[in-house]
Design goal:
Radius of gyration: 22 Å
Largest sheet: 6 strands, mixed
Strand order of the largest sheet: 2-1-6-5-4-3
Shape: globular
Distance between the termini: 73 Å
Strand content: 35-45%
Order of helices and strands: HHHEEHEEEE
Number of helices: 4
Length: 158
Amino acid sequence: MRNAVLLAVLLSIPAAARAQAAAPAAPNPATVRKAIDARNLEWTSAANRGDVKAISKIYDANAMIIPPESDAMTGTANIESVFGGMIKTAKNLKFETKSLDVNGGYAYELGLATFDATGQDGKVTKASARYLVIWKLGKDGVWYYHVDAWWVPSEHAH
């Protein structure tokens, strides 16, 4: 009987090792933060040079954007249309991540965008918007915007 129990234990070890090896490693938050900071810099650099095509490539194939006071939109054409209009009047764009949480192949970023906004009168003023981005890790190992929502804080917000 003891030999049967010992044999069962020994036979279960390779199966347990395979199960552990198959589980994907949790992403390192510092590594994810570095990758997302680089992607955000890629986004703002493209916007500041007026390259809407480069911006759209930072979004995954099923990405959704939710502009202020607008319905959610998907698709490259919508992304390029919305951001193409925005980057004509917003210059010196910068993103500041306020918090970033990582959960497997997704990361959740809250941040503040600051920029110089040109009004219809041609005057430039400092402006800001808050944003929430849900990032998705692509099969290629690159992080992509999956959901991008932003809003302008109310003048009465504290």
